[in-house]
Amino acid sequence: MVYSVFMKTDEQTIRGTLKVVHLAPHFDISGNGVVNVAIDLACMQARDGIQVVFVGAEGSFADLLKSEGVTVCSIPLSSTRNYFTAFRSLRRVLRDFDPDIVHAHMIPGAIFGFALQLRSRFKLVTTVHNSGRFGTELMSLGDVAICVSNHLAREMLRRGMPARKIRVVLNGPLDSPRLTPGAEPLQLNHPAIITIAELADFKGVGDLIAAFTFVGETLPLPYLYIVGQGPDRSKFERQARESGSAQRIVFCGSIPDPTPYLQSSDIFVLASHREGFGLVLAEAREAGCAVIATDVGGIPEVLEGGTAGILVPAKSPARLADALKVLIEDKTLLGQWRAKASSNLDWLSCRRSAAETLHVYEEVLQKNE
User: Fold this and answer.
1) How many CB atoms lie within 10 A of CB 149?
2) What is the CA radius of gyration of the chain?
3) pLDDT tens-digit profile of 251-277?
4) Domains in the chain, ordered, with CATH?
5) What pTM, to 2 d.p., does this model score?
6) Is there a contact between 168 and 4 (Cβ–Cβ < 8 Å)?
7) Of 189, 183, 188, 207, residue with least CA distance to 197
8) Which are the contacts of 171, defined by CB distance < 8 A and separation ≥ 6?
9) Which of 76, 112, 318, 352 is least enclosed by beta carbons within 10 angstroms?
10) In this predicted model, what pLDDT tens digit does every residue of 85-139 receive, in sequence order?
């Protein structure tokens, strides 16, 4: 097991002098979990008096970041056509800002940070948000690599990342500055089943549509709301049309703040084939949905080993359908799982995640003292 190291230091002094640069794919409102985590962390750090610069391709989170006191630099670090230009622009930002920490949330950022660290004083921290991408091992270029679940830490160990570099800081999306407090619920048809995910094969959306089709053969009442956008949307829409349940499957597109949908739904499903953590599971729990999710990756950690949500095998529409039927047919059981999901949420807060990340920063900065 890999543990975070908590250093006893004068946090207030460090916060008042610390300068951090976050490197992310972009700062757009698109439902990208990596971006959402980076945005939350940058905002929470700025609230704590840390000087923060956020670097990524232009996006609609710019106003939020600026309102929180974060300096925004639009540099498309992930654009393969502009690597050299992006490198020079980032070098200029780091030279002018002179950060203590550069925190890379994706592979190109880790590579750029490592190359630019050779002539700079900053420490490079990386965050491994998932393990499905080619070249994830390059996140070990950081002085320290944060993994957002214990599952990812074990996966990175298997893939050759040195144990001495790995720290675990579980994600904490609740009380996020991205979300609007007091959002009004929507008028959905009930029982309302919802998923919020990138519309891609690895998210298991096709499995969910198949499971919903099985359920619809005996239970004609439930509706399925699919929130998100992605490369396989047209394929899933075609699958829905051919399922015989098309009139009860609603594609909602990408929603900046899905809270109203979650608050209005009965059951949340995440049918992923792989998942580093699953931010939306925490948000579904907070909204009071009963949760069904696949037993893969970091999902069991978010659902506390199955005590806060029902775990089913991945790529098994039949097992998923069975779990859905049980909850839909038994309202008492549905209420019990909703109550289980919405309890013990403090550990999923942004504040906790930001504090543990600060401890990692303190540790890596003290190594040369």
Assistant:
1) 26
2) 21
3) 999 888 889 999 999 999 999 999 999
4) 11-172+349-366 (3.40.50.2000), 192-347 (3.40.50.2000)
5) 0.91
6) yes
7) 207
8) 37, 148, 149, 277, 279, 282, 348, 353
9) 318
10) 999 999 999 999 999 999 999 999 999 999 999 889 999 999 999 887 778 999 9
Nearest CA to 27 out of 12, 13, 43 is that of 43
Strand partners, 195: 226
Contact of 89 with 116, CB cutoff 8 Å? no
**Using CB atoms within 10 A of its CB, is residue 74 exposed (0-12), middle (13-18) or buried (19+)?**
middle
Task: With CA atoms as reference, report the closest residue to 311 among 347, 287, 278.
Answer: 278
Q: Which residues contact 147 (CB under 8 A, 6 or more apart)?
A: 2, 127, 128, 153, 156, 166, 167, 168, 169
At 304-315, the pLDDT tens digits run 999 999 999 999
Work out the number of other CB atoms within 10 angstroms of the CB of residue 43. Answer: 24
Task: Dig out the tokens for 285 from the structure.
Answer: 């729990």
Residue 41 one-letter amino acid: L
Tell which residue, 132, 61, 83, 126, has the closest CA to residue 274: 132
